[in-house]
Specification:
Strands 11, 14, 17, 18, 19, 20 and 21 form a 7-stranded mixed beta sheet that branches. Strands 1-8-6-3 form a 4-stranded antiparallel beta sheet, with no helix packed on it. It has a 4-stranded antiparallel beta sheet with strand order 5-4-2-7, with helices on one face. By secondary structure, it is of the alpha+beta class. Among the domains are: 88 residues, OB fold (Dihydrolipoamide Acetyltransferase, E2P); 183 residues, Chloramphenicol Acetyltransferase, CATH 3.30.559.
């Protein structure tokens, strides 16, 4: 029997690494071809990776939470020739295209977007090419992953039974995030599958807290003689009762370092790349909403205003190639909407915003919000936007310098709504106003173009409806 090392493949997103979520096997287990081997989390999704062979699992690269670099070994197998194997040269259906740059069109700027009718926030919820031999055969790159398909189509995930529980990887990831023991969750899905709603319900009622002892076990447990002593409280007084002089912290850090993973890890790369490649300049002004009639969807108005400004000044609805000093003006408007979650930042794209009415915008945002919360959003929806929107002001802050992520050349930031005293003909009035910040790449457009863009945006927001 021969052993085979399996390297982590590019999971179709061009990212340099992925984090182990859960192994479906342990060392010594026998696995068959194309059975699920491990669940991996990238910056955009939780993906099941199937086994490339049939045989015994000899060694695994790490445990849950470990980061594995694309192209490095993930698992080692002892191939069993008596079990089904993939024929040499057989197409696995998994093909790797060229990887895009870290900062090209990935999730980016940091801020949360307004998504409710009244401005509420979206909640949180390689290896070198194989060399040929004289006999025409190639070395095995070790990154074939069974019948994984890559493309823009959305593929339904299959619930995988692990530990006696059937659930898709995204549900398992959500359970870990919420501190829920998925084995104790009441399943309401088909064939006893645990769904996203089941996990959230268990988190809300506290019926399946991770690490909690079941009631039956508590009843059988012997009584504890005495409760452990409470930890001593820190004090600014010495034993004699006099105030102690404090000193600044030394070189040694008192906290525990935490390795960034998944979405937050990718965000750090994107921000560093944007900082190195963009020449940012920010203009700021206030949109006067005094003329608004009735209750209006603030997000829809912001997006409509951005579309109007893009039509007036197309130079900011563009991509810029700094290496070749070339720009691409877009006839359509795809708006990247920054969504803040506990896991990190997502920037899903609201496609063809220039073709949508207020209802279409709201439905599109709700769809993107649901997909981000459940981590089911396709990778294709997290790239390719032509301009960005960030609403940091729903918490605090009037003006900001949002980060422009290349190849885009502009991002609009909306600050906290406020009531200002405004001078009018014959006196003063109190108007409701929204601070607007426009950050743009000064290599790609002039200050005059940016100022005209901002004026067009403010003019549209000033309309009654």
């Amino acid at each position: 029997m021969s052993n085979k090392r399996f390297n982590l493949p590019d999971l179709g997103e061009g990212l340099p690494d992925a984090t182990i979520v859960e192994w479906y096997v342990k060392e010594g287990d026998v696995i068959r071809l194309d059975e699920n081997l491990v669940s991996m989390e990238t910056a955009k999704a939780v993906v099941d990776v199937p086994s490339p062979v049939s045989g015994k699992v000899v060694k695994l690269a790490g445990g849950a939470g470990d980061v594995i670099v694309t192209g490095t070994w993930l698992a080692e197998f002892e191939i069993d020739p008596s079990l089904p194997q993939r024929a040499e040269g057989q197409d696995t259906g998994h093909h790797h295209g060229p990887a895009h740059g870290v900062g090209s069109q990935d999730p980016a700027p940091g801020d949360r977007v307004v998504a409710s009718d009244e401005g509420g926030a979206i909640p949180a919820e390689g290896a070198p090419a194989a060399k040929g031999h004289a006999d025409g055969k190639r070395d095995d790159a070790g990154t074939v992953v069974g019948a994984m398909q890559v493309g823009d189509a959305v593929v339904s995930e299959a619930a995988v039974a692990s530990g006696g529980v059937k659930a898709v990887p995204a549900v398992r990831a959500m359970a870990r995030k919420l501190g829920v023991d998925i084995a104790r969750v009441r399943a309401t899905g088909p064939d006893g599958t645990v769904g996203m709603d089941d996990v959230k319900r268990a988190a809300a009622d506290g019926s399946a807290k991770a690490g909690a002892v079941p009631a039956a076990a508590r009843a059988a447990a012997p009584a504890v003689a005495a409760a452990p002593a409470a930890p001593a409280q820190r004090s600014t007084l010495s034993q004699s009762g006099k105030p102690m002089r404090t000193q600044p912290p030394g070189v040694a850090a008192s906290g525990q370092p935490e390795q960034l993973k998944g979405v937050r890890r990718n965000m750090a790369r994107v921000m560093a790349d944007a900082h190195a490649k963009v020449v940012p300049t920010t203009l700021a002004d206030d949109a006067d909403l005094h003329a608004w009639i009735g209750k209006q969807d603030i997000t829809a108005r912001l997006i409509r205003a951005i579309v109007a400004a893009c039509k007036t000044v197309p130079a900011l609805n563009a991509w810029f190639d700094g290496d070749n000093l070339a720009r691409t003006l877009h006839p359509h408007v795809d708006i990247g909407i920054a969504v803040d979650t506990d896991d990190g930042l997502f920037v899903p794209a609201l496609r063809n915003a220039d073709m949508l009415d207020a209802r279409g915008i709201r439905e599109g945002i709700n769809r993107l919000r649901t997909q981000v919360e459940s981590r089911t959003i396709p990778a294709s929806e997290l790239s390719g936007y032509t301009i960005s929107l960030s609403n940091f002001g729903m918490f605090a802050g009037r003006y900001a310098t949002p980060v422009v992520v290349p190849p885009c050349v502009a991002i609009v930031g909306a600050g906290k709504l406020c009531h200002d005293v405004v001078a009018v003909m014959g006196g003063i009035e109190v108007h409701r106003r929204m601070p607007i910040s426009l950050t743009f790449d000064h290599r790609a457009c002039t200050g005059g173009e940016a100022a005209r863009f901002l004026k067009a945006l403010l003019d549209d927001l000033a309309q009654p409806n």
